[in-house]
């Protein structure tokens, strides 16, 4: 039977049974449902807003909030926003450092070093949830791959918890690094 790491802090990196739809995307916890169609809702002023909402939902649903290539003009309380100045944002840097430390202290996960942030989105909820996509090098193999982490960063100015840490999902298939998280039982 094939088992894989699911990135959930509650089970401390224990292996979980492989589910066909759960390729590290934790789709059951996706912040924006990809099901249903609310494009006919009365809150839209015009077709442009309706199309923007559909584009927003599609991007958030497909990437679990990690990738958003535009700033929505709609008012989205608690919605995802891209962070373009992430290189100067100390909260983003501290959050990635915290997530890497958390990952590297778990003996079941590959040790990573030399991170390079590629993109960041965030939600604002009594602090920030930073969704960080980054490249890092596996210390054991020397291979450089793309990973994603989501970290809750408190208003007090410190990372509080890592709730997603995974190889970046690629078109519903595993990258070589994702296979390193797979265990044969």
UniProtKB/TrEMBL annotation:
<dbReference type="GO" id="GO:0004869">
    <property type="term" value="F:cysteine-type endopeptidase inhibitor activity"/>
</dbReference>
<keyword id="KW-0646">Protease inhibitor</keyword>
<dbReference type="InterPro" id="IPR000010">
    <property type="entry name" value="Cystatin_dom"/>
</dbReference>
<dbReference type="InterPro" id="IPR046350">
    <property type="entry name" value="Cystatin_sf"/>
</dbReference>
<dbReference type="Pfam" id="PF00031">
    <property type="entry name" value="Cystatin"/>
</dbReference>
<feature type="compositionally biased region" description="Acidic residues">
    <location>
        <begin position="7"/>
        <end position="24"/>
    </location>
</feature>
<protein>
    <recommendedName>
        <fullName>Cystatin domain-containing protein</fullName>
    </recommendedName>
</protein>
<feature type="domain" description="Cystatin">
    <location>
        <begin position="79"/>
        <end position="148"/>
    </location>
</feature>
<keyword id="KW-0789">Thiol protease inhibitor</keyword>
<feature type="compositionally biased region" description="Polar residues">
    <location>
        <begin position="25"/>
        <end position="37"/>
    </location>
</feature>
<feature type="region of interest" description="Disordered">
    <location>
        <begin position="1"/>
        <end position="46"/>
    </location>
</feature>
